[in-house]
Amino acid sequence: MKTVQRVSPVGVPLLAFVLLIATWHRTLPLAIVIIVAVVLIGAVLAAVHHAEVVAHRVGEPFGSIVLAVAVTVIEVGLIITLMISGGHGTETLARDTAFAAVMITCNGIVGLSLLLGSVRHGLPRFNPEGTGAAVAVVATLVTITLVLPRFTTGASGGRFTGSQLAFVAIAAVAIYAVFITTQTRRHRDFFLPVNATGKPISDDEHATPPSTRTTVISGILLAVSLLSVVGLGHAVSPSIEAGVAAVGIPSSFVGVVIAFIVLLPEGISASRAALRDRMQTSLNLAYGSAIASIGLTIPAIAVASIWLDGELVLGLGPVQIVLLVLTMLVGTLTVIPGRATRLTGFVHIIILAAFVFLAISP
């Protein structure tokens, strides 16, 4: 990771916060919506930049966890604000966003990282033990939270009963906690970048960590950025929903848009790591974000559903389940050799393209 000499950007989080105050609970004309959308994307990028500063200070694999949690906070905030606003399709918004996040991370970010790394460095290596464990956790979390409600009989229409939802939420948090413990303590070496012989190395061995002052300032700006992203997302949500409806795209595509927005910086960070021959860091970011998106988002939405109006539909449809099975199968075969190739990267990208196309034209 590049040496951080100063806290930057500072202006974007502050601008986003001022704009949030100026637009709170107001009907916005199209020109202002465009400005808010641009600042929103800038605030997302700024949030992950400052998360990277904090992550750089704590090192790998803790850094990837900081980034994943920051992105998840943005995701949960946007989902809840959109669900509060109501409208058609909000009952499936959590499902659509969480599943889109899994597809984008496990296919888009993983595929792009594998492709960039293999083009730049030939056959970049990663640790199949740590990465394989992450894939197994993703598969388990997605199955118990998003696949099972389609087959349970306690409630119809892809919904859990109250007790089932409580169990799944607790189980998801427990799995996430055990994974984090494994990643940071018991088997930390499995998640460190490796050299050509497969030996773990420090991801920051040639970089100077930021100072305590820089880290604290970035932490504050990270909090400001996250708050601004959630608030501005609420401001532009009516326009996003109206735009999707105007072009005849299913309302579920709103979840895909949210996932792409919040995961854009994660994709940039993973791509940079792949180009620096830190493939393990790229995979930590990708699968870590997928795990956080399910292990933290679904329990948070489950708790929020206690006071939110309307139903919470989590069960995936048949096409989504097929794409999930394909993603997990290809992901497993990708991890086994412990080496990245252009072919596997391209295959993952094609799966993501199929997901996006079918989300637009089911």
Automatic annotation (TrEMBL):
Main location: membrane
Transmembrane segments: 7-24, 30-50, 62-86, 98-119, 131-151, 163-182, 216-236, 242-264, 285-308, 314-336, 343-360
Protein name: Ionic transporter y4hA
Keyword Transcription regulation: no
MF annotations from Gene Ontology: potassium:proton antiporter activity; sodium:proton antiporter activity
Lineage start: Bacteria, Bacillati, Actinomycetota, Actinomycetes, Micrococcales
Stretches assigned to the Sodium/calcium exchanger membrane region domain: 30-184, 220-360
Cellular localisation: Membrane
Domain of life: Bacteria
Membrane topology reported for the UniProt record: Multi-pass membrane protein
Record keywords, A-Z: Membrane, Transmembrane, Transmembrane helix
Coiled-coil segments: none
Signal peptide: none
Cellular component terms per the entry's GO annotation: plasma membrane
Keyword Zinc found: no
